[in-house]
Amino acid sequence: VQLVESGGGSVQDGASLRLSCAVSEYPYMRHCLGWFRQAPGEERDGIAAMWPGGGSTYYSDSVKGRFTISQDKAKKIVYLQMKMLKPEDTAMYYCAAEWRGGIWYQQDVWDFWGQGTQVTVS
pLDDT class for 69, splitting at 50, 70, 90? Predict the structure, then answer.
C-alpha cells in the first residue's frame, strides 16, 4: 500500500487549502480511508474519514462544517478540502487506510499511513 499526501503549506488565518492523498497498490473501493493530524506534542487524531464504495463520511467536531473529505474514484485520490483555517489547525496531516473497526478517530485502529504533509496557519 502506498499513500502519498500533498498540498500542505503555510497560509494565513481564514485561508483555504486542499490536501490530496494518492492511493496505490491497494483495493481502493474496499476499505475506509481517512485523514489524521498531529500537532507537536499532541497525539495523532482522526479528523475525517470516508468509505469510497458507499460514500459515508465522518468528521471530528473540530473540523465539522469547515473541512470536507471527497474522492476521485478514477484517479484513486482522496481529498481534504479545508476552509476557514485557524492557527490551531497547524499540524502534520496524514492519510490513513484500512480502519479495522472500533473508534475511527483513534490511530491504532488503522493499518496504513502516508508520510504526512505539513499545514501551518498563522
Answer: very high
